[in-house]
Design a protein that fits this description.
Blueprint (H helix, E strand, L loop, with lengths): L1 E4 L4 H8 L8 H10 L3 E8 L2 E9 L14 E7 L9 H15 L4 E7 L3 H9 L3 E13 L5 E14 L2
Parallel strand pairs: 4-5
Antiparallel strand pairs: 1-2, 2-3, 3-4, 5-7, 6-7
């Protein structure tokens, strides 16, 4: 497995192998943020196939409840599901932590849905500690062309990397 920073040609492959809801690609939105310098979008590869992704959002979590200012690991995903629990998510998190540490930033955060105990257990094993409950709000344009809003109950966790 290899982890790289997302390049312009990678978005189409991500859409093909790790789809996203709606008409505007989940991956294209993250790549656009990277192009604006707001984030770094990491992609995990098995051969020439993308199998995972994670975004380091340099300005941190946007939720008002999260008052700590540190980069946030966001949009962590591994697909297809049968590749989970094989170290891909851990490798993406460690690569993200390395990016943060190389910038001399001491702390990184990650959010986890309260309905996702499997991810919460992974983050705890990697040394992340709960900081604050919050609501993650996000939207996308559906295939029907209409905006869809989602709100997830989450916990923001942090870990020192320096």
């Amino acid at each position: 497995m290899e982890i790289t920073v997302c390049g312009p040609g990678d978005v189409e492959l991500l859409d093909r192998h790790i789809g996203s809801p709606g008409t505007l690609s989940f991956h294209a939105r993250r790549f656009a943020r990277q192009e604006r310098g707001e984030s770094t979008y990491l992609v995990a590869w098995l051969g020439r196939r993308p199998v995972g992704h994670a975004e380091v959002r340099w300005n941190g979590c946007e939720a008002a409840e999260v008052t700590v200012r540190c980069p946030e690991i966001n949009a962590l995903g591994v697909r297809p599901e049968e590749l989970r629990s094989r170290g891909i998510g851990t490798a993406l998190i460690r690569a993200a932590e390395d990016l943060v540490a190389r910038r001399g930033i001491a702390t990184v955060g990650i959010g986890v849905g309260k309905d996702n105990p499997r991810a919460a257990a992974l983050y705890a094993r990697l040394g992340y500690e709960p900081l604050v409950a919050y609501h993650d709000r996000w939207s996308y344009e559906g295939d029907d062309g209409q905006p869809h809003e989602s709100v997830d109950a989450c916990v923001f966790l942090t870990r020192d990397v320096c």
